[in-house]
Design goal:
Elements (H helix, E strand, L loop, with lengths): L4 H5 L2 H28 L1 H4 L6 H21 L5 H18 L3 H4 L2 H24 L5 H25 L2 H33 L3 H30 L6
Length: about 230
């Protein structure tokens, strides 16, 4: 991926509006997820009372992720917005166990740490002149390695030490993805600069990718700094 510097340098105000739109959707999506997970967990946890309830929630989440990613170019911006915020809502459902397991202080600490490291890597991704696309395949391979290692350790090995190594490895991978996805926003902007509807959709998709990075960073950081309620 070679970034066309002139596209966004000659349209600084337009690119700034694109970034502002992306981060507004990101903020609102995270706010919705947090509100659903924290305030609605008593009702929403009833979905986990049966295997079918868990399966439906997880299937909806995976289905929306796949649909949003694969059909973005053909869907309307209204549909894209619905997909993003519905995914944020469902993610809040899947995280509704978190307030039950962890005390409020450690949750707040995990959010603050996540926001700080996320923001730092986003700034790096925005300001660096290095083309990070050449590292993208390494991040993807690292992500799949983490998933495989998590499954193997969870099913067969049950090692706390390996689990902690996976946690730190995942944090490194998602920090890299934050910078990578932040830089990709330039390409998203350049591909949609002359099409308002496409620009809205690309801003939403950029927010979606950064949203996934933030949520996963939070989950793994919480595993390190979270203090369980029964401790």
């Amino acid at each position: 991926m070679r970034i066309n510097e002139n596209v966004y340098e000659d349209n600084t105000d337009s690119f700034s509006r694109f970034l502002a739109s992306t981060y507004l959707h990101l903020f609102l999506g995270l706010l919705l997820t947090g509100a659903v997970a924290y305030f609605g967990y008593g009702l929403l946890m009833s979905l986990y009372a049966s295997f079918m309830g868990m399966f439906i929630v997880m299937a909806l989440q995976l289905g929306l992720c796949f649909y949003f990613s694969s059909r973005l170019m053909t869907m309307s911006k209204t549909t894209a917005m619905f997909c993003f915020y519905m995914y944020s809502f469902i993610t809040g459902v899947t995280l509704s166990y978190v307030p039950l397991l962890y005390d409020g202080a450690s949750l707040a600490l995990a959010v603050l740490i996540t926001a700080a490291v996320f923001g730092s890597m986003a700034v790096i991704g925005y300001t660096t002149n290095t083309d990070l696309s050449k590292f993208g395949s390494y991040f993807v391979v690292g992500l799949f390695a983490i998933i495989i290692a998590t499954v193997i350790n969870g099913l067969f090995i049950h090692s706390a030490g390996i689990d902690m190594l996976i946690t730190y490895g995942a944090i490194i991978v998602f920090l890299g993805l934050v910078a990578y996805d932040m830089q990709k926003l330039r390409t998203f902007y350049a591909s949609s600069i002359y099409d308002d509807e496409m620009s809205t959709k690309m801003a939403l998709f950029g927010a979606f990718e950064l949203y996934l990075d933030f949520i996963n960073l939070f989950i793994y950081i919480l595993r390190i700094f979270g203090r369980r309620n029964n401790d």
